[in-house]
Amino acid sequence: MAEVKVRELRGVEELERVVALQQAVWGFADRDVVPAALLIAAQEEGALIAGAFAQGELIGFVFGFPTRDPAQQHSHMLGVLEPYRGTGAALALKRFQRDWCLARGIARVVWTYDPLRGGNANFNVRKLGVTVRRYLPDCYGALRGVNAGAPSDRFWAEWELASPRVAARLSAPLPPADVRDVPFANRVDGDVPREAVLDLDAPRLLVRIPDDWGAILGRDPALALRWRLHAREVFGHYFARGYRVTEFVPRPNAYVLERIPVGEGG
């Protein structure tokens, strides 16, 4: 695979290519994309729009904008073309974003993602070191494209850029988490959620999610809705009790929740 290079994007032509990428990555219709004119305006007000290139072709991008907190950026979009997923392009974009933000005194980046997509969970939690303590039911309303078919519930990810946790995750591959004897906060039979277990008080908990949420979303809307409501109940309950996501275990997919004081560093 060709070497991936990341740099800031500038000008109408490059930002129009970002519009095309949105359509290719998520199946967006014209009404769903962030248009080039808005990207240009956001960039003038301090937004980051960076692209990943392989052999001169734009294959991915990241778009983050300022928030009411000067020390925090909201990362609204990160997308990579399907043939380049798993090649390190997404990680290169996030590394660039981290360096760009730290150079400007921005210490935290936040974003939303679908808690049931295991690939995103593995990337965000395990590789980047984000933590999660907020669950947003039906955050964006009804969506189209690859996200159509279930309420748009989202996790609110917090990426503490200068924390030892994040630095360690980015510097070396992480060994699998030791989750022996950690109780499950839900019961699952194959790819069907059966029961939320809401009376646990252990320091760490496991919450199973589907191994292939995209396949469920595409073939069985009723099961997708059942999973969505099940996850909403479990995560909403334990976040309210002071737990937060600190780890992810792939295949079978499960989040690790820990009860950690809110003021403790990420």
Automatic annotation (TrEMBL):
Annotated N-acetyltransferase domain residues: 4-162
GO molecular function terms attached to this record: acyltransferase activity, transferring groups other than amino-acyl groups
InterPro entries: Acyl_CoA_acyltransferase, GNAT_dom, GNAT_N_AcTrfase_prd
Pfam families named in the record: Acetyltransf_1 (PF00583)
Record-given protein name: Chorismate synthase
